[in-house]
Fold:
Amino acid sequence: MSSVVVINTGVANTASMLAALRRLGASPTLSNDPRDIDAAPHVVLPGVGSFGAGMAALHQHALVEPLLARVRAGRPTLCVCLGLQLLAEASDESPGVRGLGFIPGVVTRFSSPAAVRPLRVPQMGWNFVGPWQGRAGFWAYFANSYRLCDLPPGAPVATADYAGPFVACFRDRGILACQFHPELSGSAGLELMRDWLAGSGGATPAEPPSAHAAGGRTPRSGPPGTLPRGARASERIRVIPCLDMRGGRVVKGVQFQGLRDAGDPAELAALYESQGADELVMLDVAATPDARATAADAVRAIRRLLSIPLTVGGGVRTIDDAARLLDAGADKIGVNTAAVRDPSIIDSIARRFGAQCTVIAIDAQRDRASPRPAWRVVVRSGTELTTLDAVEWARAGADRGAGEILLTSLDRDGTHAGYDLELLHAVSSAVHVPVIASGGAGGPEHLIEAIRAGADAVLAASIFHDARHTVADIKARLVAEGIPVRAENSP
Structure:
C-alpha cells in the first residue's frame, strides 16, 4: 500500500480525499508535522476556503519551507483546488498575501463581460478538461470562485473553459496540481489519482507536433500569458438525488409529513452514483425538530462508497457542527433554521471553509394573502412559518457568502405536481450564485421546466427512490431536449 500524507491545514474537507485514497489501496494519514511532509513518499495539499487562510495555515504549522523544497525537487505531491492556487505568487482574493511562488502568476476571480448573462460564481459543478494525450478529455468537478490563467512555464497544461479558458491542471515531474477535485470526479478522477500514486504523475495533455520546437512547452494560441481555449464551455446542468434522513434511514413524505421508509442511505448513494448522479444531498429532516445534530455516522457510511460531491444539512447550528460534518465526509454544508435565527453563521462558515462549502437551504411557502407573488421562509422542517421574504432572504444569504441556494417549495414538496417555477425564476434572477430547484418533481418534464425557469441544478427524491425514473433516464431526456448534462466519455 502506498503511504500518503494528507496535509491537515484546517481549511480542507479532507475526509473525501482520505476516502478516495483508501479506495485506491493507499494508506493515507493526516498530518501538519513538517517532518512528515519531508519524509512521505507522497503528499497531498488539499484546500478550500480563502487564499489568505490557506497560506496562514501553512505558516502556522511551519509548512511553507518543507513544502516548497518538496515541490521544487519534483517529489510526488498532489495539489488540489486551493492547493493549486497556493502554488502561485499571489491571489486577488487576499491582497498583500504572498503565495508559495512555485509558479509565476496571480490568481484572479471569475468574471464575464457585462454584455452576457451574469456569470454564476462560484463555478459549481462539472466542467470538461482536455484535450489529453490519447483521449479527448474527461469531466471533473469544480467548486471555485478564482482561477489561474497564466501558463506554468514548461509544464504540460490541460485547460477548462468558464467564461474563458483557465488552468484545470498541470504537472511538473512528480507534481500534479488540479483546480478541480479529483477525489470527487468519479472514475476519471480516481484514475488520475491512481496514475499519480503509481508514479506517472497523471496523463500528459496532448501537444501538437510543434510543441517540441517550443522548448517542450504547450504552445499558446494568443499573446504571451494566455491559454488556448478549452474544448467546451462548461455550464452543465446537475441532476441531484436527495436523501431525506430520519433515524439512520432514508425517508420520504409530502411537505415533510407522513414520512415513510425509502431505504438504506449508503446503498442508495452508491446506486445513484452508478446511474450518473452529479451530486447527492443528504438532509436530516428530524435533526432540528428533535434538537440534535445530524448523525455523522451516516455521512461516513455514504462517503466510504461515494466519489462525487455530498451536501449535508439538518441540525447545523454552529460552525463546529459544520466542521464535524466536513470531517465525516461532507463536501458542502447546508444551513436553514439556524441561519434564519442568526445569519452570521453563514458568514462564519463561508469565511472558514469558503463559499463553495456554504449552502443556504430555503424552504419557501407561497404567501397567498399578498397582492403580488411572494413567498415566506419556513423553518424547523416545515413546521414554523416566518415573516421573512424568501427572495430577499436568498439575496441576503448570497451576499453574506453562501455559494449556493437550495430552494425548496414547501407547497410542492412530495406532490409530484412540478416545481414552483415562479418562485424559482424570482430567486434565480435575484442572486449571483447557483440555484438548486427542489420540491415537486414528478417526471422529466418538471426538471426541464425548472431548468428553463433558471435552475442551475435540479433535485429530486421520490421519483428515484420509487424507481419511477433513474438518473440515467432523466439525463437522456434532458439531452433530447437540448439541455447540456455531464455524460461519461462525452464532451
